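User: quick one - fold this with NDP bound?
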Amino acid sequence: TQAPVNVTVTGAAGQIGYALLFRIASGQLLGQDTPVKLRLLEIPQAVKAAEGTAMELQDCAFPLLAGIDIFDDAKQAFEGANVALLVGARPRTKGMERGDLLEANGGIFKPQGEAINAGAADDIKVLVVGNPANTNALIAQSHAPDVPAERFTAMTRLDHNRALAQLSKKLGTPVADIKKLTIWGNHSATQYPDIFHAEVAGRNAAEAVNDQAWLADEFIPTVAKRGAAIIEARGASSAASAASAAIDHVNTWVNGTADGDWTSMAIPSDGSYDVPEGLISSFPVTTKGGKYEIVQGLEINDFSRERIDASVRELTEERDAVKQLGLI
Ligand code: NDP
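Assistant: Sure. C-alpha cells for the protein plus NDP:
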C-alpha cells in the first residue's frame, strides 16, 4: 500500500469539520487505496471538542485512517501537509463591517499561509472553505511565496453542485446527465452560475430551458442565495453539503475531470476571460494528473459578461481592501 497522505483540516471542531472528517477518513477524499493521516487545527478553546471528534473517528475503525493529531499551532498543523482544507474562519457577526471581517480573517489566514510556506510538503494542495473564501485564499497565498500560487484554491463547488441540482429539477433530468456548467467569480451573492455552455443529455442547457426569465429571476438568485435559505429552514448554516463539496473539489483536483466535462474552482487568474491576473476567481476548469487548466475559448454573451464583471469587481474591491489593511 501507499504511504499515508497528510491532510490538515482547520476549524476541525466546527459544523463543517464534523461532516467532513469522517468522509476523509473513510477514503472518500483521496480514494480507497490511499491511507490518510489527519492533522487537525483548532483554536485553544475548541481543542477539547476536536479531541471528542477524534475519539469518534477512532471508534469508526476506518481501515484507511493511519493517525490523528490535534494542534492549536498552525506551524505544527501544516508540517508535512499534502492536502490542506482551510475551513475555520471568522464568520461575519451582526453589525460587523466588511473591513473588520477581512481584518479578523487576515489574522487567521496570514499565519496559516506562512505555516504552509514553512512546512507543508512540496506537493501541497490548499482548498479554502472559510469565508470570504476567495479573499482568504488570496491572503494565505500571498504569505506563501515559495509555494506555487496555483496550489491555493477556494471553493465554488458547492455553488456548482447547487446549480446542477436546480437545473436537474427544472428539466427533470438526472444530475449525471448535466455537463459543463460553470460558476464564475466570487463565492458570494454576486457569483454567476452559467448554463450557456452546459449540456443536458447532449443538448445545450440554455436552449433546453428556453426561459430567460427563469434564468435571471429564479435560477441565478436561488443558487446564489441558497446558503441563506438553508439557514432559514434549518436554523443553522449548511454543513454536510459544504463538506461534500469540499470532498468533491479535492477529489476532482487529484483524480481528474471526466472526458467531455469540467468543474468549477476558484483559482488564481492568469488573465483569462479578462479576470485580472492574480485574483482568486472561479472558472471552468479541467483537471488531470493533479493539475488544473482553465477551459479556453468559450464565447461569453452580454448576459454573462455583465454578471462575470460584477462578481470580479467585488473580488477586486476585496483585494484592494486587504491590500489597504496590509494583509497582502
Ligand atoms: P462552520 O464549520 O459551519 O463553517 C466554517 C466556515 O466555512 C465559515 O467561515 C463558513 O462561512 C464557511 N463556509 C463556506 N461555505 C459554506 C457553506 N456553504 N455553508 C456553510 N458555511 C460555509 O463553522 P463553525 O462555526 O461551526 O466552525 C468553525 C470552527 O473553526 C470552530 O470550531 C472554530 O473554533 C474554528 N476556527 C479555527 C481557526 C483555526 O484553526 N485557526 C480559526 C477560526 C475558527 P460563513 O459563516 O460565512 O457561512
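One thing worth noting: Residues 10-11, 13-17, 41-43, 46, 87-92, 108, 129-131, 133, 158, 227, 237-239, 242 surround NDP (CB under 6 Å).
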